[in-house]
Amino acid sequence: MHAKLSGQRYLFVCLFVICCLLAYANELIQINPQIISTDTSSQSNSPLIYLFGTTIDPANEEISLQHIRNPELLTSPRKQFNGNEYVLIQFKSPMKDKWREQLIAEGVKIYEYIPDYCYLAKVPVEKKDKLKATYSCINWIGEFRPIFKFSTSALFDYNQTQPPALQTETEINGVIISPLDTEVLDSPKEYIIVAYPDVNIEALQNELIQLGAEIISISQSELKIKFLIRISPSKLAAVSYITAVKWIEPKPEWKLLNNEARRI
Predict the structure, then answer these.
(1) 171, 196: one domain
(2) Of the residues 116, 147, 178, the one at which a domain ends
(3) 95 close to 117: Cβ distance less than 8 angstroms
């Protein structure tokens, strides 16, 4: 009987707390209604594109990229390669098989999906503008910018070698790095470079070597070509300008955590 009463008291206390929170929230909203209001004046009906670390509104792409501190990574001096350009194609709704077939007939190569309704694709340069005008199912076609190829860690490494990062002392792994120690921040590291599955491996390898990269290994699958290289972080911008490169990330450092959970 006592246990039953204790359970009822607990339930009553929980309900009382919930009611108090709801009443407080309602009062707060009445006092400050903009808490739940949304300014739609700068928003569009276009679906957003969720890239790694960046969200793009195709109707306001320049505004979406204002937070990026690397203007040199917003466009590539080498957009075209062998008459093709790698772009993002966003549809107005989920892509239908009919649309895919139409694009393939136009010479478009579709690689992978990016939310929402967007695909990374290779498009013949002479047909890029025609696609948007011809197919009403296409909402937007935009450049696959160099900044989109960087993982967060790779971008951090690159930024550490760029001004104003070297104008003040920086602590890295407990070591104080002065502005004069640029060779420490820019010492070669191992990176994974992911390329499209249909690029010329030898040509890409030569381009990486010309940038000063040491090629450690190369692997290939139906979906991608992967290079493991050693290169200075300051050269990563030049790597991202290579048309065949799709992604850049540091080589992961694996750690043995066997039995570590026993301490929790």
Answers:
(1) yes
(2) 147
(3) yes
pLDDT in tens, 206-263: 999 999 999 999 999 999 999 999 999 999 999 999 999 999 999 998 877 766 666 6
Residue partners of 153: CB distance under 8 A and separation at least 6: 249, 250
**74, 146 contact by CB (below 8 A):** yes
Give the closest residue to 208 by CA, choosing from 224, 223, 228: 228
Shared-domain flag, residues 132 and 100: yes
Could you identify the residue written with the tokens 């039995």? 259
177: which strand partners?
170
Among 131, 147, 163, where does a domain finish?
147
In sequence order, the 6+-apart residues with CB closer than 8 A to the CB of 181 are none
Radius of gyration of the chain (CA): 25
Helix (H, G, I), strand (E, B) or coil at 88: strand
Domain at 203, CATH number: 3.30.70.80
Q: Confirm if 88 and 119 have CB atoms less than 8 A apart.
A: yes
Strands 84-91 and 138-143, sheet pairing: antiparallel
Q: Is the pTM of this model over 0.85?
A: no
Distance CA 75, CA 78 (A): 9
